[in-house]
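Hi, here's the filled form for the chain we discussed.

Project: internal
Contact: R.S.
Residues: 354
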Amino acid sequence: MELDFSVNGSKYISEKIKEALGINRRYAVICGNWIIDEPVRLPSDFTLVMEDCRLRLADGCYSNIFVNEHHDTALGKTAAGTDRNISVIGKGRAVLDGGEYNGLSEKTHLKNGMPPIWKNNLILFTNVKGFKITGISCRNQRWWALNFVYCSDGYIGDIDFCANDTAVDKNGNIYHGISHSRYEDILVKNADGIDLRCGCHDIVVENITGFTEDDSVALTGIRWDLERYFAVEGASSDIYNIKVKNIATSAFCTNVRLLNQGDIKIYDIVIDGVCDTSENSPHMERGLYAVRIGDTSMYGSRHSTADETYNIEVKNVYSRGKYAVALAGQMKNIVIENIECAPETQLLLDERNF
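And the returned structure, exactly as it came back:
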């Protein structure tokens, strides 16, 4: 059934927030179907409730749906500008929708007048201490759906994804369902679910479902354009004390991925409960990995050392991808237990001595 959307959704939500703050109320409830054409800024100590609400990005716009109040400001890149205690809670049918793809990709990022690729995140939080995102369905993300940079003390739970599975062949024919042999046909590439980037720590991610074109949950410590641009003065870039639990997704690349290169550390990570749900998926063929730690490819300045990747526990994993667990690079204190493979799946790809 085709939904009717009201325009000026960004203004509607911002006015709801302003109205609540005007009477010293730290929450607002939004309902209905709205078109979003610019990011809504969420203030500290505030809860936004999406109740039977669908927010869809406007055709052709380059925008997030939600950012924190001091995101992309000079103050927001300092300890004094840290935003705190922000929640987005879904009740009933609560959907964030990327809508029609806008052509912004990692290949077009900052080229020929294009904006940065992170304008395509549905939620982008930078330098937030204390946050909660729960009860949300994400649809048609234009890149990574939920992105967190230098954020801590957070909870992300009960999130469902359905990425765009459109492909376009060399003759311009459109079809649905993506495959590794025809990767170049994929319209929206690298459409992750949840990304915890540099500086993220003390976060729980759990009860994640659905289909993601790339990684469902990624913990990534590299200094790319994103991390350099949103670096917080004096803050550590390490990723640590993260719990990832109950991930039941169809992931074209990896259900849960850990990657750190350069001098950035990843440590004290628990991954407990990963289930590949891709059998008979209409969106994708068999994925590659259930859990992946490290990479033979170079994304940062150098590969990590064993003193930079350590204290990682992986348990209770079911995979039907090419590999259940893949390891690359140096690491120590790695525990891997209770891994179950479908008949066509190899238990371990160990490339630690590349």
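Let me know if anything looks off before we file it.
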